[in-house]
Amino acid sequence: MTAKTSSGPTTTTLADRRDAVIAEHIEAECLHDVPRALRTFDTPHYHMYPLALDAPGAEAVADLLGAVFTAFPDFEFIPACSYHASDTVIVEGRMIGTHEGTWAGLDGSGSRIDVPTCCLYHFDDDRLTSESVYFDHATLLAQIGGQP
Q1: Measured at the alpha carbon of residue 22, what is the angle toward residues 9 and 7, in degrees to the nearest 5?
Q2: pLDDT band for position 3 (50/70/90)?
Q3: Burial of 124: CB neighbours in 10 Å, binned 0-12, 13-18, 19+
């Protein structure tokens, strides 16, 4: 695919287009802009494996993100590195934030979290179809004062 810019034509690879979608998605999440995050999906769908949670559809994804942003009002995902596979982009990073609202039945503790996280962004061509999230929930619980 070739895109025309003011400085002339540039070649955009599938990997570049996927990276742009992911960057937009992560930025929207870090800004807690749920409608913007939803727009990055062709079909909004989250698999939150540590919680055994499957959230298909815009309403379920919005509810999931709302719960995360309520529990951790300064939530951010900080990407560290990424790897491209045939229909998936794997992004390793860290979830950070402060536990201010209820999470896993635990009232806000004021404790900071910093949890290694791996996100798999699933694509059909350059259209984001779902995100699978992996992290050690026991580590997160230990950081907020719960039992691992």
Answers
A1: 15
A2: very low
A3: exposed
Give dist(CA 142, CA 148) in Å, integer. 5
Q: Which two tokens stand for residue 43?
A: 């079909």
Two structure tokens written together for 11: 């070649």
Whole-angstrom Cα distance, residue 51 to residue 87?
Answer: 24
Average pLDDT, the chain: 93
Measured distance CA(54)–CA(40) in Å, rounded: 18
State the Cα–Cα distance between residues 32 and 52, nearest whole angstrom. 23
Residue of 131, 43, 137, 41 lying closest to 79 (CA atoms): 131
Q: Let me know: does 96 contact 114? Beta carbons within 8 Å.
A: yes
Q: Report the 10 Å Cβ neighbour count for 116.
A: 13
For residue 146, is pLDDT > 90? Answer: no
pLDDT above 90 for 8: no
CB count in 10 Å sphere of residue 119: 23
Which domains are seen in the chain, by residue range?
12-143 (3.10.450.50)
- How far apart are alpha carbons 79 and 72 in whole angstroms? 18
